[in-house]
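For the sake of transparency, this paper describes our internal protein records without simplification. The tokens are whole numbers drawn from a learned vocabulary of local backbone shapes. One such record is reproduced below, unchanged from the form in which we store it.

. . .
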Amino acid sequence: MTRSPHVVLAGGGSAGHIEPALATADALRRLDPSVQITALGTERGLETILVPARGYDLALIPAVPLPRKPSGDLLRLPFRVRAAVARTGELLRSVGADVVVGFGGYVALPAYLAARRQRIPLVVHEQNPLPGVANKIGARFAVAVAVTMPGTPLPGAEVVGMPLRPAIAELDRAGTRRAAREHFGLDPERPTLLVTGGSQGARSLNAAVSAAAPELARAGVQVLHAIGKKNAIAVQESAGGPPYVVLPYLERMDLAYAAADLVLCRSGAVTCAELAAVGLPAAYVPLPHGNGEQRLNAQPIVDSGGGLLVDDAILSSEWITTTLVPVLADPARLAEMSRGAASHGRRDADVTLAKLVLAAAERAGGSALADDPDR
């Protein structure tokens, strides 16, 4: 190309869409420091916080949620889509977009349709085993379709894995363990359970683990527990026992992973990909509602021997005492599970996807605006 490529990222709403988009942006900058990047988002999504914090430009477009049931919103949908596509098209022209990279979510569909209208190459990445509506549509005319998991039903899909932050993808758990445990005020030698239910926490995880605190302490297990910013728990600690560290949120998830021997967590796509990449065993508790996607995310890792699956309804302090404590007390089993998790992990997805994006921009040759039928 005769100028630096301009990449537009479309993936807003939840961290599951935004984090892989930002990881891809970071990889693009490492591969080509001159690349220009704009992220699309809506005023009510997490991207308004996460994107500027990572140093990238954010352009806002109208949100177009897709109603799941017949309603007045469904009747108004075509008009909302049309307005969002028009606004997105203006933004693509104003920045001189050479390629659009979509990760699904509310932002994606208008971006896909605007890119098609302007003949801008589209690259789609699907994080989940069950694609969303936007990615199903975008994949039909994308120049490249990348997926996290084998068997994802999208045409022409290439399995690349989940783009991850370098702090996670390059983490040396063993080499960082002692420093990580000191960072959180943990004992450097005790077996360590990490508990996290995401940024909002998870009430069932919080209740089960806090109730099991006395048994965990008797077994010599220390706990690093991220409960969510709006939550509180009561923990019965024993004098002189192992630490039980409660935090509202983990700012340094890389250090939390390095400190842990085992994780109790939900099984969102990014969480599963991160734990597999760093070879960290986990007990996965899929969300008890939705389309069953979280169970599908964790199942391949569990099948590889890298984790356990437990239904939310079954999770209890008794389950933790009878199932997790014996695992935490068995270094050989933890090592075996770590190998199983790592066998399913990929650390290079960000670079692999970034190369697909740059190749698409190069093939476009900066000609998208000249070909725009609306000009």
Q: What stands out?
A: The chain is about 45% helix and 15% strand. The longest helix spans residues 72-95. The longest strand covers residues 36-41. The chain has two domains: 6-164+348-364, 171-342.
